[in-house]
Amino acid sequence: METMLTLADFIRKEPKSIHGYPMVYAFSHNWERIEKFQWRPDDIVIATYPKSGTTWISEVVDMIQNDGDIEKCSRSAITEKIPMLELFVPGLRITGTEALEKMPSPRLIKTHLPVDLIPKDCWKNNCKIIYMARNAKDVAVSYYHFDLMNKLEPYPNSWAEYLEKYMTGKVSYGSWFAHVKSWWDKKEDYPMLYLFYEDMKKNPKKEIKKVMHFLGKNLDEEVLRKIIHHTSFEMMKNNPLLNFTNISSKMMDHDVSSHLRKGIIGDWKNYFTVAQNEIFDGLYEKEMARTTLKFCTEV
Ligand code: PPS
């Protein structure tokens, strides 16, 4: 049955509910593959809500793991060397779980799954988890532009319409609030590294060092400088192995928007109207009232 499906069957579809969470329609197919996923104790998981700097932190982790060796880190496109667990596009025969099964250890695994959807063995296996969060408003703007170009998502229509869906948690992977909070809470009973995009922007060296210590590595200053340079926005934007241009235009139209678009803190100010901002702040206050989690939205 699955082999009869083509990419066209997955283009511009509304997300489908998986255990109550809206999931990218294509990825929702054959969900048992996620539930049956075999973790390995030396897996390193990079978890994020979409558009929170996943690609950035992923390349940082790979550089650290490879002691800053750019040649080793250029072994393949980031989408291949760090597969996304839930990725499933039957028409293109791309499956995150299959790619991961074939991969030698230690594996680097990308996921946007909320805590509740992470295959349970992850916790038993003591996999190393790095979570990166980014402020809600810049994520909304980045996600909107991504959905304009990413045909696996429904077409977002106007910014106003998209923001409404985002605020009500009807976009793929659900509510930003629930995602960042549940991972923040998970940190209480599971040792993980919780990072912020904004901290990486302000002081990449400090954050990269945190990752380095978390991974049990000790790299000298020269290597750290190399990592900072190689993973800067400009370098990554122009690196075809890191900017997603390897992904077929049938899935992503890079003429509409780039995966590495602006890479700044505060771009939301160019999109939120005063009224939208007031409504958003009201919701934010309510949703974030009972958490110690704090974000920065401007420099
Ligand atoms: S995805 O598709 O969910 O995995 O996207 P993700 O990589 O999480 O997020 C994409 C946004 O991260 C920005 N980005 C960076 N910012 C600063 N420095 C570096 N090196 C960097 N790499 C990626 C990217 O530009 C997207 O944000 P926006 O605001 O759209 O530019």
Automatic annotation (TrEMBL):
Its EC number is 2.8.2.-. One of its GO terms (molecular function) is sulfotransferase activity. The keyword Glycosyltransferase does not apply. Keywords: Cytoplasm, Transferase. Pfam families: Sulfotransfer_1. GO terms for cellular component: cytoplasm. It is found in: Cytoplasm. InterPro entries: P-loop_NTPase, Sulfotransferase_dom. It is an enzyme of class 2 (transferase). Residues 41-291 form the Sulfotransferase domain. The keyword Transferase applies. PANTHER family: SULFOTRANSFERASE SULT. Belongs to the sulfotransferase 1 family. This is Sulfotransferase. It comes from Phascolarctos cinereus.
